[in-house]
């Protein structure tokens, strides 16, 4: 989610292998029915685990963490690696600071988003209040920090992929065609202790994919309101965007 761009093993793997072994001997309609039942099981398992983290997300006020990003682009033969700092505040406020050499800073105060490129002295400004209908997914998702992911079932189909003692991984697939043109799926690794995303993998329809991993998380640190505002430096070119951010 550079310019745009926010998990469990419950015995389903064993069940899936068992069904695959039997599939050649089962009528096609029986096989389809078992596949649907397995999908429903994965969906229910994902929601159950996410519900267990609800209170932790609802009690989250602020957060800061470090992150690393690996981006694979169809136009490049090698992945692009980045790192930086992420800060979050309730009310859709956040800061993504990508460190040099390709530095950028994205700040949201919940109403506006500033995207600043220091080396180019360029600033893009997005008014999210003007584009609420277009930014539904952005407002609802907010990377799993703003609200419990289990509340997003109207926008995404959510299924369990795997589970360990400490975490679980889910996959979110867009239900709406407009969103599916931007995102094929999101795989999110969730901490059972905090309920927060540890890793986010996004896949785009063109095959581009991005992995963001968080580390050194600090929950509910004291972050002043000024953290989520932007003062434009002198000599910076400002571009007031007419459309919302692609994410």
The count of helical stretches stands at 5
Give the full name of the CATH homologous superfamily: Lipoprotein localisation LolA/LolB/LppX
Nearest-integer average pLDDT: 83
Beta-strand portion reads: 35-45%
Quote the CATH topology.
outer membrane lipoprotein receptor (LolB), chain A
Q: Which radius of gyration do the C-alpha atoms yield?
A: 20 Å
Regions with little confidence, pLDDT below 50 for 5+ residues: 3-26
H and E order: HHHEEEEEEHEEHEEEE
How many strands in all? 12
Tell me the count of domains. Answer: 1
The geometry reads as: globular
What is the correct CATH architecture?
Answer: Clam
- Give the strand line-up of the largest sheet: 7-8-9-10-11-1-2-3-4-5-6-12
CATH secondary-structure class:
Mainly Beta
Helix-residue proportion: 10-25%
- First-to-last CA distance: 7 Å
Largest sheet: 12 strands, mixed
Give an account of the 3D structure.
The protein has 247 residues and is α+β, with helices and mostly antiparallel strands. It has one domain (12-240): outer membrane lipoprotein receptor (LolB), chain A, CATH 2.50.20. 21% of the residues lie in helices and 36% in strands. The protein has helices spanning 12-23, 28-52, 54-58, 136-141, 177-180; strands at residues 62-72, 80-89, 93-98, 104-109, 112-117, 122-127, 156-163, 167-174, 185-191, 197-203, 209-219, 237-240. The chain has a 12-stranded mixed beta sheet with strand order 7-8-9-10-11-1-2-3-4-5-6-12. The longest helix is centred in the N-terminal third of the chain and has 25 residues, at 28-52. Residues 3-26 have low confidence and may be disordered.
